[in-house]
């Protein structure tokens, strides 16, 4: 069984280093959610019933031997899946907070102010130069981080839905969706 993702040291520098942030999310998703089938297969006891030669004579559309026991699924969810989701949620929440906070250490803020002042003072004559009115201000790094967080949250939602549906297929249908189950798990973790 795979291990849950370990939490990175949360600092604004970690969030603004988009390569490190994306790498963490990619690796965490790869070890848990992207390889959910392999993780669930690892829970099965190999050759539990032995080989039956008759099993190869007809194609079986359903796989009764591939269904996991409920206690195996619960253990996987409690020990691997939900802790990985929790670490990623904490990182996404922290970095979203950094993206909405003022950034006094922005190295490009002075350059943006100079470019904005230059653009305001520029003479625009679109008759002589149709492109003279164009000005594309530089994006602040907090704005860029906020856009990245929106995208990563959407990706996370899709990945969790897919993981939960595969978990439901292999472990039996669950009456609750992924987010309420995860929220209930987090509530129990906060109490303990």
- Coarse shape: elongated
Could you say which structural class the secondary elements and strand pairing correspond to? mainly alpha
Largest sheet: none
**Strand composition percent:** under 5%
Distance between the termini: 24 Å
H-E order: HHHHHHH
**What is the helix content?**
55-70%
**Count of separate DSSP helical elements:** 7
Identify low-pLDDT runs: none
Radius of gyration, CA atoms, in whole angstroms: 25 Å
How many structural units, i.e. domains? 1
Q: Report the count of strand segments.
A: 0
Average pLDDT metric: 80
Pfam families: MIX23 (PF09774)
Biased composition (Polar residues): 54-65
Family: Belongs to the MIX23 family.
InterPro entries: MIX23, MIX23_fungal
Task: Describe the secondary-structure layout.
Layout: H1 12-16, H2 18-32, H3 36-41, H4 70-100, H5 109-121, H6 141-171, H7 178-191
Helix pairs in contact: 2-4, 4-6
Describe the structure in your own words.
This protein is mainly α. The chain has one domain. It is 60% helix and 0% strand. It has seven helices and no strands. InterPro entries: MIX23, MIX23_fungal. It holds the Pfam family MIX23. Belongs to the MIX23 family. Residues 48-69 are annotated as: Disordered.
């Amino acid at each position: 069984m795979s291990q849950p993702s370990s939490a990175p040291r949360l600092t604004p520098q970690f969030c603004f280093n988009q390569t490190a942030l994306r790498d963490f999310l990619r690796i965490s998703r790869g070890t848990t959610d992207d390889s959910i089938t392999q993780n669930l297969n690892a829970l099965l006891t190999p050759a539990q019933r032995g080989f039956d030669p008759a099993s190869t004579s007809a194609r079986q559309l359903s796989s009764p031997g591939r269904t996991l026991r409920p206690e195996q699924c619960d253990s996987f969810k409690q020990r691997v899946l939900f802790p990985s989701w929790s670490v990623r949620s904490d990182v996404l929440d922290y970095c979203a907070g950094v993206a909405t906070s003022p950034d006094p250490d922005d190295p490009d803020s002075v350059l943006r102010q100079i470019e904005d002042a230059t653009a305001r003072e520029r003479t625009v004559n679109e008759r002589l130069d149709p492109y003279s009115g164009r000005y594309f201000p530089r994006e602040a790094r907090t704005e860029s981080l906020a856009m990245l967080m929106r995208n990563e949250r959407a990706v996370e939602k899709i990945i969790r839905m897919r993981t939960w549906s595969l978990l439901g297929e292999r472990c039996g249908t669950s009456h609750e969706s992924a987010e309420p189950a995860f929220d209930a798990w987090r509530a129990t973790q906060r109490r303990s």
